[in-house]
From TrEMBL:
InterPro entries: A-D-PHexomutase_a/b/a-I, A-D-PHexomutase_a/b/a-I/II/III, A-D-PHexomutase_C, A-D-PHexomutase_C_sf, A-D-PHexomutase_CS, AMG1_II, AMG1_III, PAGM. Pfam families: AMG1_II (PF21405), AMG1_III (PF21404), PGM_PMM_I (PF02878), PGM_PMM_IV (PF00408). GO terms for biological process: carbohydrate metabolic process; UDP-N-acetylglucosamine biosynthetic process. The lineage of its organism: Eukaryota, Apusozoa, Apusomonadida, Apusomonadidae, Thecamonas. It comes from Thecamonas trahens ATCC 50062. It catalyses: N-acetyl-alpha-D-glucosamine 1-phosphate = N-acetyl-D-glucosamine 6-phosphate. This is Phosphoacetylglucosamine mutase.
Amino acid sequence: ADITANLTAGIASYPKPDSVVYSYGTAGFRMAADLLDSVMFKVGILAAIRSKALGGACVGVMVTASHNPVPDNGVKLVEPSGDMLVPEYEKIAVAMANASTVDELAELAAAALAAASVAPDAPAAVRYGHDTRPSANRLVAALEAGLAVLPAVDAIPVGLVSTPQLHYLVKASNEPQFGIATLDGYNNKLIAAYTQLLEAGGAGNGEFDAGKLFVDGANGVGAPALAALLAAAGPDFALHASIVNDGSDPEVNILNHEAGADYVKSNQMPPPVLAETADRCAAFDGDADRVVYFFNSPSAGFVLLDGDKLASLMADYISSTLQVLVDAGLVAADELSLAVIQTAYANGASTTYLRNELGATVEFTKTGVKHLHHAALAYDIGVYFEANGHGTVVFSPKYVETLARVAANPDLATAPPAAAAATQLGLLPAVVNQAVGDAISDMLFIEAILRIRRLSVADWAALYTEHPNRLTKVAVADRTVFTTTNADQQLVEPTGMQDAIDALVAPVDAGRAFVRPSGTEDVVRVYAEASSQDAADALALAVAKLVY
Ligand code: NG1
Ligand code: ZN
């Protein structure tokens, strides 16, 4: 095919709206779906170029706007390893998205190919999927037009998938040892790992009654994805979940509307359908890459277990299971490093718990999972979560080798607790979707820990008590005038504003506050913590007034 003719046709079908300046934010391109057609076309071209630049390794494209309202949509690119797009290509993506003529676009595409020293007809493979939004089909068609611009592109649609499933499919198609690159492969890997983990932990089916679990699917893709996994697992699976907000009735089940992890976390209340239950509840977000838990306590009312609580339980379980091997002399005390990576939005009580009670290393990064993921990779066990429930655990090759060495140790035969600990730890890299935060995989890991430890959701909530806090947002004329440093905890610009914030925080008991521009919405976020809810609210309000 003639590349110039394809570009000309594409620019004509998918013209760039004049008024819009596109940027690649915390979660890729994200905005009103009506403004994204031209972006999709260009992302198709760029995804093909990225794959060509990597010798034809499969890259991914996910069309989703996660927890945002139905009229929005978005798109992000996935590297062959399952990671987020590298920053160098984010820049090219932005330049292409903002190009309005055939010449501009042709030049950018040629420059990107030249920078990678590849020919336009080098082989490429791109897997692409989408969430449940009504704009998905139209936007995927624009993406496909982009994928068809350059020759020799193997464009592989995977249809309706969660964001973490797309990451899994991409990673598995490049690394066969990671898993089988199909949705059955995804389900079967998690089912097997979860089942074996429970058996090793003495909590197989029938050994422990974990009580009822409700899962709020946010009326998004997480509901059918989980239903498919449970169906594949069959009736003997040691997890029985009732899925609500499953999107089944389009009249009432509106994506992310009074449903899902973001609703629960932002409003600090259960979705209406789960307002009454005292049972354990998990809530996914619209593309199922986040999960939080909650329950309605007869005495304490609504209790949220957010990403910080998930990270704390996972770190607690992993470090104490590892300690069994250290005590048995099978692993040296400092052989495997463990850290928890948090952002400024992590509740201060979680950081104190992790550092002082668990003795864990805690590191802070900027907001956005790509930053947390990157920091986590520096450790043998890197637990990372945003407070909103987005996170996972990554394990180093040394972790895998160490556990393999321990598993081969003949002393294990006479040390059942150490053998059980070694088996459990050896299974974790398969239970946890290491490619990216995954609501289903994170939930299975948490469910396994609760069963193995015989913990109720209330026991888990009691790990530590959150400091009262308030997260609010302020609409400003231009959020780009706000710049931050020190993992988003301090403002650099506007000049002088950080001093003013410090002056407001200083007199507040256990006070903490920071301001940063959102990467996904046209707002500035304000977060405050204090020793009482009133004080946290007052501090957030005072800081917000500085920002207006
Ligand atoms: P922004 O809008 O940049 O604050 C939000 C979340 C992030 C992350 C991204 C991606 C908060 C405070 N911010 O980013 O943690 O999840 O969306 O979806 O929750
Ligand atoms: Zn999401």
